[in-house]
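To the structural biology subgroup,

Please find below the input and predicted structure for Parvalbumin, which we are adding to the shared reference set this quarter. The sequence is reproduced verbatim from the submission form. If anyone notices a discrepancy with their own records, reply to this email rather than editing the shared folder directly, so we keep one authoritative version.
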Amino acid sequence: MAITDFLAASDISSAINACKAKDSFSPKTFFATVGLSKRSLSEIEKVFKMLDQDKSGFIEQDELQLFLQNFSKGARALTAAETKAFLVAGDMDGDGKIGWEGGLL
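Predicted structure (tokenized):
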């Protein structure tokens, strides 16, 4: 299963291009641009599982740093500040990771 099974390649490319500059990544803007905000919970859960590289059921800081590369191999890594802001925004229970309880969006 590939991320393009759920999201249009052109939308992914637009989202990646919109955050090429360091410290320009915004999770909400990225999710809206790739069309993830319009997907069903079932589809979002499938994408979440693809992003959960170690299959722990959570997306941890190291996985978040490489978040964009899950969508496009040539994409940059998130900066430390972007990673921390993303984690804070998505960590619903304060355990330092994003779980499937809806924190991703």
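Summary notes: The first helix runs from residue 9 to 18. The chain has a mean pLDDT of 92.

Regards,
Lab coordination
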